[in-house]
Each structure stands twice: as structure tokens, then as C-alpha cells.
Amino acid sequence: MTSRTRSGPAPPTRSCSPATSTRRSARTRARTAGAVHHAGAVRRVPPGDGPGPGACHEAQALAGDDDPSPYIAEISCALSLGYGHEDFRALWAEVEKRAPHHLAAHAAALQYWCRKWRGSHELAEEFARRAAAKGSPGQLLSLLPLYAAFEQETTEEEADTDAFHKTPELVAAADACLTDLAAAVAADPADPWIVRVRHLLAWTLY
What we know:
65% of the residues lie in helices and 0% in strands. The chain is mainly α. The chain folds into two domains: 17-34 and 122-206, no CATH class; 42-114, no CATH class. The protein is globular, with a radius of gyration of 20 Å. It starts with 17 loop residues before the first helix and ends with a helix.
């Protein structure tokens, strides 16, 4: 809020666009939410420690060899309990073996590799880039590089948003995602992920 004295007019304020203001607010929320989690980013917690992982492991033992669900469910345990990187890679290998193009699983795994949880911007970007490269048109795995970029921008306090959104890598990722989105709409316009992809494209391209 601008201060005002009795003897003169209020000093000028610096205005910002609604998009810039929104991005600043998002960065503040993301930094606050991620501060505690990132503090324990690489500590090692046994995956079987606690009722959450235990229930997942029991479900994994009962599930069929092609059922990824109990392994995907354990990703939340990995975030909250702070699985070490090698433990998480072993878990992810089980998911990928059963469902190599499962978009929700990839989105959850990307959160693990984000700086605000257990990784870094570089690890999240690497995971997202590899995942997008293996996707076929319409599978929407091209969303992941945009998602990783969104996470980076909203957690970096001094990010230059104009420069960030004009990098060749992000422009190319947005173009690929637009093509992927068109294929997804043609295949199934009711796919609920389409809305999320459109929102993230709007954030990236605005």
C-alpha cells in the first residue's frame, strides 16, 4: 500500500500487468509450500517405513503383473516421506514397466523431481524432456516440459518472466504441445487432461 504524508502527494507507484501480478503471487505460494519439503530433498527414508508404503506394498503383492495402480499410489508416499533418489527410481521403473505412457503417473513423478519436493529444476527438466520424447501424438506427455518450466518460474523469486518464456527450448516445447493437443482433441475431445493442457499453454504463451 502506498504511504501518503500530510505535506505532499503520494510517491509514484510502479504498476505491473495482471499476468505479472498473477505470476508473482504463484511464485510466493509455491515458495511457501515447498520450503519445508525441499529442506529434506535427498534424505533417505526406507520405502517400507509407515502404514502408507506398507499398504501400497500389500496392494502391489496382490495386483496383477500389469497393474500400475499400487505403484502409482506409492508416489505420494515418496514425496511425503522423502524417498531417496535411487529408491524413487526403483519405484518409477515398476510404474514405467506397467504403464510407460501414463500421464497422471508422469505428472506425479515430475513433482518428486521438482525443487520444491525432492529434486531440482535440472532434474525435473531432464525427467520431463525424456518423458515427452517417448510420447506419441495425442498422449499429451508433451505437457511435462511446460509443467517443469511452470514449476521453475513459480519458485524462482527473481525470474525474468519475459526472457524465460522466450527461450528457444520453451518455445519449441509449447509448439510440440500444441501439436500434441490437436491430436488429443481429435482422438477424444472429452479427455479431462485437455483442459489442464490448455490452461498451461495459456500460462506459457500469454
